[in-house]
Design a protein that fits this description.
This protein starts with a helix and ends with a strand. The strands form five sheets. It has a six-stranded antiparallel β-sheet with strand order 8-11-10-9-12-13, with no helix packed on it. Strands 1-7-6-3 form a four-stranded mixed β-sheet. A three-stranded antiparallel β-sheet has the order 2-5-4, with no helix packed on it. Helix content is about 15%, strand content about 40%. A hairpin with a 7-residue loop joins β6 and β7. The protein has two helices and 17 strands. The protein is elongated and about 125 Å long.
């Protein structure tokens, strides 16, 4: 009789003579596997920058319901047979309340029951902060969007900048807020107080910071080849002007009695 056959028979004989121990061991193994798959929470790092998703295989995802205070659970990358979703490869979490720093337990289960319930520990980091100190370091142009750096990218909150009684929206681009201050009634070479506010969905607006900023002074002409009120009797071939700032580009118009005069 081959040696391998003898080993198999010995194993079968041992199992028959130790049914109780085998049953206990198998039950313990099944409980351990079940606990690993369903009881032990899977860590999830919440992101303010965009969708918070993890790779997770879920059978019949359309039957699952989530249980959480602050997050909605959805399933993506589904494999379907007709209209029936057999499985999904990605589980995503969307904040339905203002995110609070800390950890929250989120669970999903078929029909929202207790069988095959999966747990996730969603960890929420500190909220991104606006780096407003950069606004007081140098004057800003009033004809371009105001750029406010953030400590981290944020697409969860909507931001607005208020100057006086007027406000403009700020768009989040990576870790920068772009505020359209050129739509505000502000002048060059002036100081203004501002309030930066943020809002989560339809919740109340809160103040994200405040301070003052100064706009750049307008470029001034400090000298010219033709002086103000000067009478010119001949036709000059050139006109020159000196400004108090270095110019990158400029638009010049020659007008007489509101009539444009063509020139090169």
């Amino acid at each position: 009789m081959p040696r391998e056959t003898l080993k198999v028979e010995r194993v079968i004989s041992y199992l028959k003579s130790h049914k109780k121990h085998v049953l206990i061991g198998a039950s313990f193994f099944c409980i351990l596997v079940y606990a690993v798959l369903f009881f032990i929470p899977k860590p999830v790092q919440f992101s303010y920058a965009g969708p918070t998703c993890i790779s997770q295989v879920t059978l019949f995802p359309d039957l699952h319901k989530g249980a959480a205070r602050s997050f909605d659970v959805s399933f993506e990358e589904k494999w379907k047979l007709g209209s029936l979703a057999l499985t999904s490869l990605k589980t995503c979490f969307t904040a339905n309340k203002e995110p609070k720093t800390g950890s929250e337990l989120v669970s999903t289960a078929p029909f929202g029951g207790i069988v095959a319930r999966k747990h996730f520990a969603v960890s929420v980091p500190k909220q991104p902060l606006a780096q407003l100190s950069s606004l007081s370091k140098k004057a800003i142009p009033s004809t371009k969007p105001l750029l406010i750096p953030l400590s981290a990218a944020d697409n969860i909150y909507s931001y607005k900048l208020q100057v006086g009684k007027k406000t403009v929206a700020c768009r989040g681009e990576e870790a920068i807020l772009r505020c359209d201050i050129q739509k505000l009634p502000i002048d060059q070479g002036s100081k203004y107080q501002y309030i930066l506010t943020k809002k989560f969905k339809s919740m109340n607006t809160v103040t994200a910071g405040s301070g003052t900023f100064e706009t750049l002074k307008a470029t001034a002409i400090i000298d010219s080849s033709v002086k103000p009120s000067q009478v010119v009797y001949d036709k000059p071939r050139t006109l020159s002007f000196k400004t108090d700032k270095r110019l990158k580009k400029a638009k010049v118009a020659l007008v007489q009695d509101k009539t444009p005069i063509p020139f090169t």
